[in-house]
Amino acid sequence: MIIRREIINRFKRWKDAPQRKPILLKGARQIGKTWVMEAFGKECFDYCAKFDFDRQPEVKSAFQVSKDPQRILKELALYSEVPLLPGKTLLVFDEIQECEEAFNSLKYFCEEAPDYHIIAAGSLLGVAVKRRRMSVPVGKVELEFLVQWNDEIVPVEVKAENCVSGRSITVYNEKYHPKYRIRYSFLNLQFNCGMLSCPSPLAEWSWKWLE
After folding, report:
1. How far is CA 91 from CA 82, 115, 121, 156, in A?
2. pLDDT digit string, tens, across residues 50-68
3. Quick one: which of 31, 201, 14 has its CA closest to 121?
4. Which of 107, 93, 177, 94 is nearest to 135 (CA)?
5. pLDDT tens digits, one per residue of 115-131
6. Is 166 in a helix, a strand, or coil?
7. 10/36 Cα distance (integer angstroms)
């Protein structure tokens, strides 16, 4: 529960940030992604609208009509029991790996509808991206996840290109003092005081370097 609470606190900082991108929350099934998104929505917004692409395959059609966020929102409203209001409604896209068009739409929401708060979550997302050759909207989403490695909880932060100014991993370190931390970006490889800074193209090797 401590880890879940810290994720919610991270979401709160994201909610109030002046320059905000959709969040892409990664992790295996049954680790609490849906719970933490809905808990955050109920605690910090007037409304929380969840769209599950696995259990509600009909919702996929909203993203197949157009790439325009406003048109998508009008279509999504047909499947929602709550209003979809900027600043007041948290939009949750669950199991987003089941809908490539929704995955790609995050880019357009970032560019054309930044007033809407969107958190998307996927199970085995990396596998789905490789199998279906899906295009990750680099620089248009914030990736947030924690990984259990052996007996350690390792906070992981993914940054677009050379931008490493975010404080989420720093705040987590100051509060919980994890043994290791990982930050993926396009900066050079280095290891300093438990922080592994790893170039994104070499991500698959990062766990071997921690050994």
Report:
1. 10, 11, 11, 23
2. 999 999 999 999 999 899 9
3. 31
4. 107
5. 999 999 877 665 555 55
6. coil
7. 11
> What's the longest Cα–Cα distance across the chain?
51
**Neighbouring residues of 18: CB distance < 8 A, sequence distance ≥ 6:** none
CA distance 41 to 137: 24
> Is residue 82 within 8 Å of 47, Cβ to Cβ?
yes
Whether the per-residue pLDDT at 138 is higher than 70: the answer is no
Residue showing tokens 């995955």: 103
The answer to whether the predicted template modeling score (pTM) of the entire model surpasses 0.85 is no
Q: Which of 124, 119, 102, 106 is nearest to 57 (CA)?
A: 102
Domain boundaries, the chain: 2-143, 150-211
Crossing angle between the packed helical segments 100-112 and 69-76, to the nearest 10 degrees: 120
Token pair, residue 134, equals 């899906």
Q: What span, in angstroms and rounded, lies between the C-alpha atoms of 165 and 204?
A: 23
CATH class belonging to 2-143: alpha beta
Q: Quick one: how far is CA 142 from the chain centroid?
A: 6
Among candidate residues 37, 34, 48, 35, the one with its CA nearest the CA of residue 14: 37
Helix 168-176 and helix 2-15, axial crossing angle in degrees, nearest 10 = 150
